[in-house]
Write the structure tokens for this entry.
Amino acid sequence: MLEFVELTTGTAPAGLVIWLHGLGADGWDFVPVVRELESCGAPPARYVFPHAPMMPVTINNGFVMRAWYDIRTADLGHREDGAGIRASQAAVQQLIARETGRGVAPGRIVLAGFSQGAAITLQTGLRQAQPLAGLIALSGYLPLAETLAAERDPASNGVPIFMAHGRDDPVVPIARAQRSRELLVSLGYRVDWHEYPMQHAVCAEEIEAIARFLRGRLG
């Protein structure tokens, strides 16, 4: 089971948000965002911020850091770490199963992530046999895109997807995210797309949009 940071807002949480961090960060990275979401009117919720496992990352000269999967080249679609991606998918599914076992309905769970965390959010959320309330993919992309049509679970075809990206992102170029969005739309998914004048980051306008999405899915 992944280790995680957990916090709750309000006295009667409307649902659960599982939030996956980016490469080299940890579960604490997005904890400060919760207060910003509250100030923007996000509904009361329980937040779980898992820590990715430690592993060597090829593109960073094999340096060991928290990562959801290996990155082998600057071209994120080249030589993808399929085994690592699927291992993280399984770990997140185990975390979801833990929550449903505690009585949280899948339809009250939002899966969110930034960068690598966004990739695992899409990889996992679209293959759920019990559909989640929504998916939030920030500054990320769809991994193993060529396998989605065959592997997706029809039960999750209607899951709402929030995608946001910086126009000047040097880490995950916006063109990669746009291709992901186009593929998702071609397969019939509902994608709420947002782009902002920023790099590989999160901005205030994006936080406001996420809060609106959470109100729509959990409010």
User: Anything to note?
Assistant: The chain has one domain: 4-218. Residues 82-101 form the longest helix (20 residues). The mean pLDDT is 96.
